[in-house]
């Protein structure tokens, strides 16, 4: 079995080497060859400032004002960077729609950078991460769940367990990015269901790629709180 594992590993490395030769990586910003975002350009990416990411008002709470907390059932939101006018938005699109899975570690580093800047490490370390799930049909279309890739990266960085079975998407919905605010709220309504939890599980962290209206995260948070979760923190790469 160990021999088979080593063989598969070498085949994967050979495949990656071949892809790099045929389709070399270039920095999204400066076009330097070798990686999708060079260290110099990564350091220049603008990090998000704290505000309520749902209603855009100033707030002393982390990423969400008290009124939106009550309505959405989300207790805190951590966003790494703005979506528009920012290379991070292009990377998210390439991850989701061009299937460039190698961008997930870079995007998770942006979240880590925001957490470290605002000294939020104790808020996320050793917590249970729940990626926003895709419907089975969407998963087959894309081949992976971008939120799960991000959660796995964050799990390694902050010593967290990733739980991808507790929350399920039970309705196949239209892509939120193509809808208006009103349509998004209706499109995602009651799209999630949560399974039973252990008695000592009171706090979880939802992981997604983008927060826009917050409707997806809100519906997921409501489903989790219906089964007894007391605190839901949302983490995302971009707000737009």
Short description:
The protein is of the alpha/beta class. 42% of the residues lie in helices and 15% in strands. Strands 1-7-6-2-3 form a 5-stranded parallel β-sheet, sandwiched between helices. It has a two-stranded antiparallel ribbon with strand order 4-5.
Give structural notes.
The protein is α/β, with parallel strands linked by helices and about 240 residues long. The chain has 2 domains: about 1-45, no CATH class; about 45-240, no CATH class. About 40% of the residues lie in helices and about 15% in strands. It has 10 helices and 7 strands. It has a 5-stranded parallel β-sheet with strand order 1-7-6-2-3, with helices on both faces.
Q: Roughly how many Å apart are the termini?
A: 47 Å
- Largest sheet descriptor: 5 strands, parallel
Shape: globular
What strand order characterises the main sheet?
Answer: 1-7-6-2-3
Structural class: alpha/beta
Count of structural domains: 2
* Helix and strand element order: HHHEHHHEHHEEHEEHE
Measured as a percent range, the helix fraction is: 40-55%
Please give the number of β-strands. 7
Mean pLDDT: 89
Strand content: 15-25%
Q: Which spans of ≥5 residues are poorly predicted at pLDDT below 50?
A: 1-9
Query: What Rg is obtained from the alpha carbons, in whole angstroms?
Result: 18 Å
**Discrete helix count:** 10
């Amino acid at each position: 079995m160990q021999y088979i594992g080593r063989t598969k590993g070498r085949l994967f490395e050979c495949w990656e080497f071949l892809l790099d030769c045929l389709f070399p990586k270039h920095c999204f910003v400066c076009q330097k060859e070798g990686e999708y975002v060079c260290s110099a350009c990564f350091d220049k990416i603008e990090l998000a400032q704290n505000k309520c990411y749902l209603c855009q008002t100033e707030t002393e709470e982390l990423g969400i004002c008290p009124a939106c907390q009550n309505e959405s059932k989300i207790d805190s939101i951590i966003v790494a960077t703005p979506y528009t006018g920012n290379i991070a938005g292009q990377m998210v699109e390439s991850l989701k729609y061009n299937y460039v899975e190698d961008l997930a570690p870079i995007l998770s580093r942006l979240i880590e950078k925001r957490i470290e800047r605002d000294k939020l490490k104790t808020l996320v370390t050793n917590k249970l991460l729940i990626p926003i799930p895709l419907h089975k049909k969407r998963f087959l279309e894309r081949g992976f769940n971008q939120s799960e890739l991000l959660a796995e990266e964050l799990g390694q960085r902050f010593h967290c367990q990733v739980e991808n079975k507790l929350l399920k998407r039970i309705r196949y919905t239209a892509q939120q990015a193509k809808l208006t605010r009103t349509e998004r709220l209706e499109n995602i309504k009651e799209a999630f269901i949560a399974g039973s939890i252990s008695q000592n599980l009171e706090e979880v962290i939802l992981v997604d790629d983008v927060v826009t209206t917050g409707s997806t995260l809100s519906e997921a948070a409501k489903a989790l709180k219906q089964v007894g979760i007391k605190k839901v923190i949302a983490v995302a790469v971009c707000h737009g």
